[in-house]
Each structure stands twice: as structure tokens, then as C-alpha cells.
Amino acid sequence: MVTFKKFLDQEVKRLFLIVWPPCGEEKITDIDVSVGLVLGDEQHMHVITTDKDDKWTPSTYIESIPHEIFSWSDFPTRMKKWMKIDESDDLSYEFYEITHVDTFDKIVSQTISDVEILNIDENSPFGVKFVFENDYIVSSPISAGNTIETKAFNQQNKIHHFAKLWKARFSSLKYKLNSSAAS
């Protein structure tokens, strides 16, 4: 996964949750949520999510830092309200800045020490894990789109469930790069 190698050894300066309003969803765990990373001195964010076309493959794209940003304290209330609505024509992604939230303090201002791709086989990646010294971010597909988890947020262990179900495994991009350089 060439696109994810660029994240190795990068420092996370700002952190966002990117949420598609969960109209009519029954459980909070069904919410389509991705993560946005602002690295170093960059003036944009890298969105880590699942490919919206195949609904399986991890993907990343660049997004401008939005003008309308919600605070973390708004997140639970807004999600519960959205879950009670069946449908709306005015839907768009909502951005929640979590840079200064204690739950994510072991990610912000930290360096990405490794990126691991979860594969069923070499040609079927379906999740990505960003590894930090004392935390991680896992991004993986769900029926609604994407979900993320860290040591302290949204602990569902879905990716480990997939790993058992399909005997999948993580492969370290850092290890692959170091092995290639040594050859």
C-alpha cells in the first residue's frame, strides 16, 4: 500500500473525526466515522477511511481543513439526534476536532512509528493501523462505511474479529521498507 508509506515517521499536529450523520442508525457503533490527520506544518488533513466504491479497501485522500468544525462535547448529543431522524436532504460530513481531547492525547503531537495493513492475503487489504508509541488508530470497514478505534475510543475489536474469522494478519510497512533497504 504505497499510499500509506508516506505517513511513517510523521508527527500528528491536529486530529479530527469525520462523521456522516447516522440517520436512523440503531446503535452508535454503526456510525460511519473516519479520521483526519494534520501532519507537521501542513495546511490540510489526510482522511483515513474505507474506499467508498468497493466499501472494503483502506484509502486516504486530502481534504481542506473545514470552516465549520464541531467540538468533541457536541459529538454524543448530535449523534443521538441524527439517529432519531430517518433521512435528510441536507446531509454532509461533520468534522469534530479532537486535538485537545484527553482520550486522544497519546496520538496528538506523537509520531507515527509504523503503519500496518490488515490483509486476508497479499491482494486483499481491508484495514489499516497507525501505530504510535502508546496508542494506535485502526480504520476498518463496516456496513455503514468506516469505523475507527483507538486504545480509548470505540473499543469494538472489529478488526481482531476479522483477523480471527479470515485468519487475516497485519503486515508492517516499516518492516517491509527496512527489509527492502537491507537487501
UniProtKB/TrEMBL annotation:
Its protein name is Uncharacterized protein
Organism this protein belongs to: Chitinophaga skermanii
**Source domain of life:** Bacteria
